[in-house]
């Protein structure tokens, strides 16, 4: 059985856990070593039990803690060549390059990377499957492509970015250029874009839908939640939000 959780999600740090059997992988690590250990503990895990770290891109909120965690626990790090070259700290216990055209197998998990539109060197996101169920992860993309939609079709679990509510971003305190960056084609997905994306994929098998990477300045949980509900055609117990402080507890896909 595949299950997943979040250590925390937002511009101050991101990390997600996905496991099946004895394989447990961390997607991104934007927290300090001590904070990562604390948050893992909260989810009943120790960093010793991790199999690998996958990195989506080099931005600090996803990558700042990767090097230290890898060295401390001798964890292999999987990332694209572009992300590796753009990382500040790239002293990993072991480095494995992700080819965006190739699936990779890590223990009981099959990982399908796909590229996204984000202002990083070679960013990607993932579909993770245990053969029975699959989880789609999509954050840090300013737009969705046909290729992205194809990958997310028919997933059982989806962790989907709901970064900002357009009105809050535009009326908010961010400088003009930053507003342009966030809302641009290589920035982040808005609540509205998440809603539109959901309308374009098949969600017949969807069990859990999790709003991710919510801005604490330009969004409100209620707005993101409403957009996700609209996207799937109504309220559902399977709709969750991952927060910056609390992340999200374990959820299993059957
Ligand atoms: Zn980013
Ligand atoms: Zn980010």
Automatic annotation (TrEMBL):
Coiled-coil region list: none
Signal peptide residue numbers = none
Q: Enumerate the Pfam families for this protein.
A: Lactamase_B_2 (PF12706)
Q: Which residues form the Metallo-beta-lactamase domain?
A: 12-181
Q: Which domain of life is it from?
A: Bacteria
What SUPFAM superfamilies is this protein classified in? Metallo-hydrolase/oxidoreductase
Q: What is this protein called?
A: Phosphoribosyl 1,2-cyclic phosphodiesterase
Source organism:
Thiothrix eikelboomii
């Amino acid at each position: 059985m595949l299950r997943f959780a979040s250590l925390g999600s937002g511009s101050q740090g991101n990390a997600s856990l996905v496991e099946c059997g004895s394989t447990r992988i961390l997607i991104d690590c934007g927290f300090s070593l001590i904070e990562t250990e604390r948050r893992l503990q909260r989810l009943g895990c120790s960093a010793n039990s991790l199999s690998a770290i996958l990195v989506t891109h080099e931005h600090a909120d996803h990558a700042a803690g990767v090097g230290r965690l890898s060295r401390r626990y001798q964890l292999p790090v999987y990332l694209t060549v572009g992300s590796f070259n753009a990382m500040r700290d790239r002293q990993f216990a072991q480095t494995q390059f992700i080819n965006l055209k190739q699936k990779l197998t890590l223990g009981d998990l099959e990982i399908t990377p796909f590229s996204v539109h984000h202002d990083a060197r070679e960013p990607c996101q993932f579909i993770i499957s245990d053969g029975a169920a699959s989880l789609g992860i999509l954050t840090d993309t300013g737009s969705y492509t046909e290729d992205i939609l194809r990958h997310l079709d028919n997933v059982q679990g989806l962790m989907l970015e709901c970064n900002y509510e357009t009105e809050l971003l535009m009326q908010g305190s961010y400088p003009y250029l930053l507003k342009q960056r966030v809302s641009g084609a290589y920035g982040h997905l808005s609540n509205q874009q998440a809603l539109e994306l959901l309308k374009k994929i098949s969600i017949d098998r969807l069990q859990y839908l999790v709003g991710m990477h919510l801005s604490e300045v330009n969004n409100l949980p209620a707005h993101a939640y409403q957009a996700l509900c609209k996207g799937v055609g109504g309220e559902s117990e399977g709709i969750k939000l991952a927060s910056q402080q609390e992340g999200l507890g374990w959820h299993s896909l059957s």
